[in-house]
Design brief:
CATH architecture of one domain: 2-Layer Sandwich
Distance between the termini: 60 Å
Strand content: 5-15%
Oligomer: single chain
Order of helices and strands: HHEEHHHEEEHEHEHHHHHEE
Structural class: alpha/beta
Number of strands: 9
Shape: extended
Length: 427
């Protein structure tokens, strides 16, 4: 805004000066907000819940020396071992001396140099034709059909092994339908339409669904369950993929909702002993006797406060306490039971003192009130060996789907399940 000159200010009335002061205050507030925005530390995966993939990567300095290549000093050389029974054998005898022309057919070799080369056979698709007979019974006149073998049903156009390969390429290696068609045509010499690929994946999902539901039932009956969610694009709409993880497996489901109704639908009448999650409100309302908040999430949130206010001693001390609690959790097996309990008591008392300490600033006050509200959900992992201080298992379970989403851009199918125990995945 343009300010009036000194002479013009002296001629202003009291009301005009008040209007000018109000305008100046508004301008100062706007400029202060702009300064705060420009000087605020960037949000990263170290000070928030932002995933590491969204962090800005630093450039490698131009004058930095490249990392040395090759094996480290003292590293034992790795050599591919020879198999005992190769599929084929190629002899290369010496028949004649290249210097003088002497016949060497009858001269025994002093040494035979063995080398083995691994090769693929020529890949040619096998076309299986089925001929299903139809016979009219002379006794009753009913038309009878021959029974086709399993895997060669009349509804199939592709065999089970080919369908398994298509499913594997799509879900494990995130090949989209166009790339999937290209790979099958170029490598296997098999033409496959996009509709054929979709039919294969739907058949695989239907086949795996009963096993997936068994896994889901085992997970929901577990004593300790972790849960997390991530966004997913389904047919051009924003949906959410939820994962429920326990010691026996993991269950994935994609729903249009991010609310508690998804958890209620999955859990039914079951109630877990401990629920491990972040601070998303629907997660905190699940049917569980206790909750365990993800402590690394809290450490990162505190780091966000520290980046904005480096001299906020309260945040530093609470960070240190959470790290000490995690360290104590990992040292449980090397301490005596009495020594472990004593250190737990020390941490509990330190936490209570920190939560009663006076703090200033909106961010610190909000963080302190969160921990006061969820005080009983911070250190459950120090009292149960089957509870983890973090929610990393759920984040690892979601990572393949996040990669799939980033590569593919969306989900064509709705369900996705995986069993840690059996290593099966179906969509």
């Amino acid at each position: 805004m343009t300010l009036p000159s000194s002479d013009a200010l002296t001629n202003l009335t009291r009301e005009e000066l008040l209007v000018l002061v109000v305008q100046l205050i508004a301008e100062v507030q706007r400029l202060q907000a702009e300064v705060d925005r420009l000087t605020k530390p960037p949000t990263t995966s170290h000070n928030s819940s932002q995933p590491p993939s969204r962090d800005q990567k630093r450039n490698v300095p131009a004058n930095s020396s490249p990392r040395p290549r090759g094996a480290k000093p003292g590293h034992v050389k790795a050599v591919r071992s020879l198999v005992d029974h190769p599929d084929s054998l190629v002899e290369s005898p010496v028949t004649i001396c290249k210097r003088c022309g002497t016949d060497l057919h009858t001269v025994a070799p002093q040494r035979i140099l063995r080398r083995q080369l691994t090769e693929l056979p020529e890949i040619k698709p096998v076309v299986i034709e089925t001929r299903q007979h139809e016979v009219v019974c002379p006794g009753c006149g009913q038309l009878q059909h021959g029974t086709l073998p399993e895997g060669l049903e009349a509804t199939r156009q592709f065999g089970p092994r080919l369908e398994a390969l298509v499913t594997y390429f799509h879900h494990e290696h995130h090949l989209g339908f166009e790339r999937l068609q290209t790979v099958l045509a170029d490598v296997l010499n098999i033409p496959l339409s996009e509709g054929g690929a979709v039919a294969i994946l739907e058949r695989a999902g239907a086949t795996a669904q009963p096993a997936a539901e068994v896994i889901g039932e085992r997970v929901r009956q577990s004593a300790v369950i972790g849960s997390d969610e991530t966004s997913a694009r389904v047919n051009g709409r924003n949906w959410w993929e939820w994962v429920f993880v326990s010691a026996v497996g993991e269950y994935h489901v994609i729903k249009p909702s991010r609310g508690q109704d998804v958890i209620d639908e999955f859990m039914g009448d079951h109630c877990a002993d401990v629920w491990n999650s972040d601070c998303w409100k629907p997660q905190l309302k699940v049917p569980a006797k206790q909750h365990q908040l993800c402590i690394p999430h809290q450490i990162r949130n505190l780091q966000g406060l520290i980046d904005q206010r480096p001299r906020l001693i309260w945040a530093h001390e609470l960070q240190d306490l959470f790290r000490a609690a995690i360290h104590l959790h990992h040292r449980r097996n090397v301490l005596t039971a009495l020594g472990f309990r004593r250190q737990v008591t020390v941490i509990e008392e330190r936490l209570d003192r920190l939560l009663q300490r006076r703090v200033t600033g909106r961010g610190a006050l909000n963080q302190r009130e969160r921990y006061r509200t969820h005080r009983n959900s911070l250190l459950v992992f120090l009292y149960r060996t089957d509870v983890s201080p973090d929610n990393n298992a759920c984040e690892r379970a979601l990572r393949p789907s996040v990669i799939h989403r980033k590569v593919m851009g969306s989900f064509r199918l709705v369900l996705f399940h995986k069993s840690q125990t059996h290593g099966r995945r179906a969509s």
